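I am still getting used to backbone structure tokens and would like to learn alongside you. Please make up or recall a protein chain and show it to me in full. Would you write everything just below, so we can both look at the same thing?
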Amino acid sequence: MVMAESLTLEPITVTAPRVERDITRTPQAVSVVQPEDIQDGRQGLQLDESLNRVPGVFMQNRYNFAQNLRVSIRGFGARAPFGVRGIRVFVDGIPETLPDGQSQLDAIDLESVDRIEVIRGPSSALYGNATGGVLDITTRDGPPTPYLELRGTAGSDNFRRYGVRGGGEQGPWNYHFSAWELAYDGFREQSETEKRLFNGKVRYDFDEHRSLTTVFTALDQPVGQDPGGLTRQQVRDNRRGANANAINLDAGQEVEQQRLGLIYEDRAVAGGTLRARTFYTQRDFRQQLPFPGQSLIKFERDFYGLGLDYSNAFSAGNTPVRYIVGVEVDEQRDDRERFGVNPQGEVTGQSQDERQKATAAGTFAQADIGLTDRLDWTVAGRVDRVRFRIDDRLQDGGDQSGSQSFTEVSAATGFSYQLLPAHAVYASVGTAYETPTFTEFAPPGGGGGFNPDLEPQRAVNAEVGIKGFLGDNTRYDLAVFSVRTRDEIVNVQTDPNVFGNAGRSRRYGLELGLEHFIGDNLSVSGAWTVSDFRFTDFEDADGTDFSGNRLPGLPKHALFGEIAWREPNGAYAIVDALVVSRVYANNANDENVGGYGLVNTRVGTVQRMGTSEVETFVGLNNVFDRDYFSNVRVNANNAQYYEPAPGRNVYAGVRARF
């Protein structure tokens, strides 16, 4: 058989490590998700559709829009009962991560995402409060030729997603916008979702060096039901069923959020680049958790901040040096209330009324030094001051006001050596920290105030890796790492809503990413993650020793593979598979959740008529109708760990571009 001449892979430049550079010369594990892997024929339900292809990244909770997608990198973030922990998230340089370390992904517009860079591993030396890594998301700019695009998708379980997007350039102005609505009845009872999102981005170029970008996002989620977790027997009886308390209490959340951000860039300041950003976010939130007790939560949040950095390059003799220095200050203010609810859903009283304030201030610096033509040395450091304060306004139960402050110094260094023009090896070591969130600070028994015994967790990461190209059509990335963590923040076995510090844990892992092109149209890609994450010294408050046990909620093996055929005319056919080994549901490792394998496929065609085009596409998820769990609620009460996922399900859509 004669093969067509293979497509030549282009070098990839990354910016998430703060200084722009070729990905092969970066002494870190960094992955990039390209536009076609984000957009082509996707259902557009959650961000995991794009991130499954990144080694070292594991996601759960795809189908629960009250708890939202849970993302972990190298095991950090898996304990989060909702949202994202231990990972810094940015969209167009604006943080989605609060000063207390918690991130939400519900306001990220999948229709606008153009590129995702993922730093795998502790990143506090550059980004502060992050033991797991960084998600750096870039949204679309407007193309030179203005366009308008309409898109609609419908699928199983009454899934509907409709939207419009467009953009273009006009003189010094560049603009892009997206607006859409999602509605989904859900596979399970009590899992209905209704959500609307708008994202706008406008850039004004003062000249070829200076620009000001304005970004605005608005989220409205009036319905986000929570079906809760089930026991094994309840799953056997009815996979579509919901927790009885979740139904009785109408568990779920309601969210409104608006964000405005400004990013100024000047690429001609004393030969270097100056960047400044500022933003303001307002979020209103109400959540009924799927159990009686102190389970009704309300808050109004103001989140704002600013950042400034400067990067340049110079030569020290014959040694080239590139550097960046910067400062960031972010603050959140939550007016938070909590209420008791009886099994009939009646409010029985208020247990929390407080102003929560967290301020994070940090300054950082990094230098990339070219020791030889082949050998680069990177060194980075950061100092952070994080302060938490609670002002208790509840008239009953005594004054629980107080404050906690942490000063953290983080450092990292690494070497990258160019073996051959297309291959590089690297080694790096770095420290990181992760503070408790306000949610994790909650004392036993509910109510307000701090748990005075809870401390930040601190980690030391060491890794070696090799990455590069095999010929012109194969890209690879291999990393082996070890992370030692002390004071790991974990759920208490007897109460998943209370957190404590484990003594120590360690993480050993291997991550392999591969992409291979056969001819101009066919590509094969894959990601394999091997993880051995264990407590090395952990005894809980009841005296139970969990030392030697695996960290719950995380598989030892995760394998992703994809075969994609893309025609020059825009047509495509893609098949992907995800295989995940078993996980443990609790610290004791006495509840074993079996692994699973999924196959998904999607195909699309594009018809062009002058400057307009129409794309039709169809996708089939879980082709072989496997029973599996989309989420495991770690250390859940009453062994209600399980959230069943849909069986075989289909969606289809059309996109018209003018």
Confidence is low (pLDDT under 50) at residues 1-7. The longest strand covers residues 293-316.
